[in-house]
Amino acid sequence: MLLPLKGIRVLTLEQVHALPWGTAFLADMGAQVIRIESVDHLQDRKAGPFVNGKAGPGWWNEGANLAYFGTRNKESLCLEVTKPAGKEVFLKLAKHCDIVTDNFRPGTMQRLGFDHESLAAVNPRIITLSSTAYGYTGPWAKAGSRARTVDSVCGMSYLTGFEGGPSQRASNNYMDHSTGNNVAFALLLALYRRKRSGKGMRVDLSMQETGVSCIGPAMLEAQRGIERPRLGCSHLWKAPHNVYPCAGTDRWVAITVSNDDEWAALKQAMGSPAWADDAKYDAVEARHKHRHEIDRHIAEWTAPQDDKALMRSLQSHGVCAGAVMQAADLVDDEHLKQREFIQTIERAGGPRSYAGRPFRVPGLSLAIRHAADLGEHNEAILREVAGLSNAKIAALAADGVISNRPRPEEKAP
To answer: CA 192, CA 195: separation in Å to the nearest integer?
Structure first.
């Protein structure tokens, strides 16, 4: 099968989540994505999760997240670019690549000699992308972050929380996934532009701006003096609009009613209880005003019921409802299996199930084909892309410039 990005080569200096998530899209679509790794920075390979929660003797190749985004369909070159010989090799590779990406703080690539101007000098058609917390310009340019801090400074955390309560984090990696998606979009646009113009380009991508773009309505409201309250699972005007307890431990169902017809359908699904016929619940605005009362009544009705069976029953009545799925539910979900969204691949310790891509293109497979071990492709990349001899590759290994396992003193996670 001819994948759409076959022939495109990406060289990526990436760590943690956001940038690796983005470059994995390109790898899925057939690009040769060369992930530069280092024995000085093995935190991604220590992250797990590991079989039975315990790292094995080859822990650096066992982490399940590697196949999710870290080395998914990528090639691994464990190369110490801070060493002069490693820098020389990196520049040789960049000469034969279409894209170079990094997620270092601004200034790091310049110190390494890998800034856009330096790379463009050896490859005028190069596309470079830096995915940073706040971008390459502005007073916060050199500040670092994690997804948690970006979640805060983009305004997302302020809006998130239970009604009347303090701000809370929206998600542990919401900004990572959102930024990674933008990485993929931006690189595809850059490739399209280069195809038309013949010229390389520089892409400066900000995690904070990714987050700010997600709260556009709140920014518009702020300019008109409108304060958007924290609502938890509630809505600005819809009611009922919440999650309700079900039978079992920590089982819930989400129910949303947007108009009078849906309210009538919900009443019918509940067996037309007397409380629901009160005239104060007849209109949308009135239901929102009395939403807490409605929530208490619905919670009493849902509490003894199975979440998934209740979801199906409500849907059959025309009510928008969804069981609050746990990760274990999704692994075995029949709907996702029939759509071939859940992919199972062999990893250390046995088969693992992974989430696939949320779109289907006839004749195009975006499956996980491989998850690279540390330094698995050292020799092939150095020989076929950088043009190095076997003797030179052996010398790099002897000098510790390339590796395929941690240093002996490295502790297992």
So the answer is: 5
